[in-house]
Each structure stands twice: as C-alpha cells, then as structure tokens.
Write a structure and sequence with these properties.
alpha+beta; 4-stranded antiparallel beta sheet; 8-stranded mixed beta sheet; 17 strands; Aminopeptidase; elongated; 348 residues
C-alpha cells in the first residue's frame, strides 16, 4: 500500500461517541457477521457470503491504514462503545483532490445517528485536513435512508445513472450525490435557529426566478412536488368536482431570506373548504420551524375570514410529512384521494 496523503496521521478521528480507526484482527468476526446480514447487504455490492477467511484477509489488508491513500481505496472501522459498529470507505483519485466515500453500519447499531456522526466526521476531515476538492457517493435509488444521510450533510443529487452498477449479476441504477468543499462550508454556515419573522410574500416577475430555484432534498420529492410542477399547477389548475381549482400562492421569507413556497386552493362555491395544496421549505432552511409558522399564519388568516377547516393531504411513507401535520393538529378524515390521506385542521 502506498503512503498516505498527509504527513501527520489522519486516523484516529474522535467524535462525541465514536472513534474512526484502522481495522484490527479482532474486528474480523463482527465484520463478517454484519456484511453477511441481508438487511445490511441489501444495498451493497460485495460478494456474498463473506467467509471468516475473507474477513480475516480483508481486515489484515487494512490494518496498517493511517488515512486515505491517493489512487487507492481504504476501509476504516467505526468504533462505538468499545466495539466495531460499522465501517466507512474512502477512495481518492491520483491527485488526492477527488474522493468517493461509502459507509456501512451494523443493523443493531442503526437508527441511533451513528452513521451520520461517522460520515460527518469523515467528510469534514477530508475537506478540512486533506483539502479535498470534491466528495462523491453513489447509492441504490431505493436506499432512502442513505440518501437522507447525505442530504443532511449538504450533498446534492446529481442524477441517476441507468443500469450503471453491477451488483451480484444484475445491472442496477445508481444515484449520484456530490459536494464541493465550499458547499460544505456554506452548508455548515446556513441559518439554523428558529426565525423571529416569517412572512408570506406575493411573487413578482422579478423574484419568480429565485422562487423557482427553491428545492427540497431529492428524497423528499416523492412527498413534495418540485417548484416547476407547482408553477405548472398554478398556471394550469386541475378541475375537481367539475370546477377548476383556484390557486393562491406566496413565497415564504424567513428574516428577509427566501426560504419556501406555499400554495392554497382557495374556497369557492364548488370547493367550500380551503386546501393546503403545496408547502415547500427549501433544503437549506428545513428544521427551523418555518413550515409550522406558515401553517399557523394561514390558519390565522383563514380563521379571520370565517373558514371552518383547512384541508390537506399527504403521501404516506418513511420520511414523509404525516408526523408534521399530525403535530400541528390535522385530523385524518378517513378519506383517501388519489392514494393520499386527507386530513383537516379545525379552525374554530
């Protein structure tokens, strides 16, 4: 194995709960066990089964790793509470400017934020300590948990390569994510706290292009339509119950910065209850309570106009908006429209 790209050892990396370190011979049984777990191997491309001898040989090949290596891949252990919880991988190009990463976590250590903590530490070390220019990752399009992990770190979806990954005799689609070093810095510096002021603004021709650039994370697009679709729906509203829907749309500004978009189907004789048609919070501003502020503002306005309820519908699924709406007091009506759960927020 060639020399690491740094003079000082890259490893170990310590976080609040974890240590990223070289694999050791003692890790081999655990390594083999989780790599053979169907739940863990489902979205990975290693050859199965991983025998004890395979694990021992691989761990031995990585035992001397002190950090990423230009022109090569290295595997790094993730230690949690004194034992191997998973591993992360780094591949550098020959210039050590471009990196690819991968990550694997034991099934019994998932859903604790360990993967996110480990990958965050790895990404920041690659950017801050090695000066890597770009980090990329690929994943199975069905692996939404992995996509959400990358999105939480600021990675952008760059597209899907069709039938580009050879996995156990099959050619599968490959989703591509990446991030540049300045992007990571900007992501770390993005607004985090709850804004003091959230306003709903009329959309003018001057600010329409900026509104059109608002975007959720890629993994959320199965629950929230893109801005392009929202503008199309506003321009060519659908007909429901024999009458066209009347859209009311506004940009959302948080402390003066464009942060989201909302669109309501207004109450009409044909549609007596207002309907929250679209609510999008830009990926940079999620987690700040902006969506809650928007719904509360709408509820106050509609209540003042004498409306009884605000309706909404959502697509079910992991990572979807159902918990958000239930927390706000929306109550499912029992109706399902076009596969979406219909709910009402009482306004009186």
């Amino acid at each position: 194995m060639s020399s690491p790209t740094t003079e000082a050892p890259f490893l170990p990396i310590h976080t609040v709960r974890l240590t990223l370190r070289a694999l050791t011979a003692a890790d081999a049984p655990t390594f083999a066990a989780y790599r053979n777990d169907p739940q863990v191997a489902r979205y990975q491309d290693w050859t199965l089964p991983v025998t004890a001898a395979d694990a021992e040989a691989f761990v031995a090949s990585q035992a001397g790793v002190t950090g990423p290596v230009a022109g090569d891949w290295v595997q790094i252990g993730v230690e949690y509470e004194g034992e191997l919880a998973g591993d992360v991988a780094v591949g550098l190009d020959g210039s050590a400017a471009l990196a690819m990463i991968g990550y694997t976590l034991r099934a019994d250590r998932q859903h604790r934020g360990i993967g996110r903590e480990a990958v965050t530490a790895l990404v920041d070390a690659l950017f801050d300590r090695l000066g890597v220019h770009r980090i990329a990752a690929t994943l199975d399009p069905a692996n939404t948990a992995s996509a959400r992990l990358l999105e939480d770190l600021g990675f952008r979806y760059e597209g899907c390569a069709k039938a580009a990954a050879a996995v156990r005799g099959a050619w599968l689609d490959d989703d591509r994510y990446a991030m540049l070093r300045p992007d990571r810095q900007a992501w770390r510096e993005r607004p985090r706290g709850r804004p003091d002021e959230v306003r709903l603004l009329e959309i003018t021709p001057d600010d329409a292009p900026a509104v059109a650039r608002l975007a959720t994370h890629r993994s959320q697009q199965r629950f929230v339509a893109t801005m392009a679709q929202s503008f199309r729906d506003a321009l060519f509203p659908e007909t429901v119950g024999g009458a066209p829907v009347v859209p009311w749309l506004r940009a959302v500004a948080a402390e003066g910065e464009l942060a989201g978009f909302v669109m309501v189907a207004e109450a009409t004789p044909a549609h007596p209850d207002p309907f929250l048609w679209r609510l999008l919070v830009d990926r940079r501003h999620q987690g700040r309570g902006i969506g809650t502020a928007v719904v509360n503002e709408l509820a106050d306005r509609l209540r003042g106009d004498g409306h009884r309820v605000l309706k909404v519908s959502w697509v079910g699924g992991d990572g979807g908006p159902e918990p958000f709406y239930l927390r706000l007091g929306f109550v499912p009506t029992g109706e399902v429209a076009d596969g979406e759960t219909v709910a009402e927020l009482p306004l009186r």
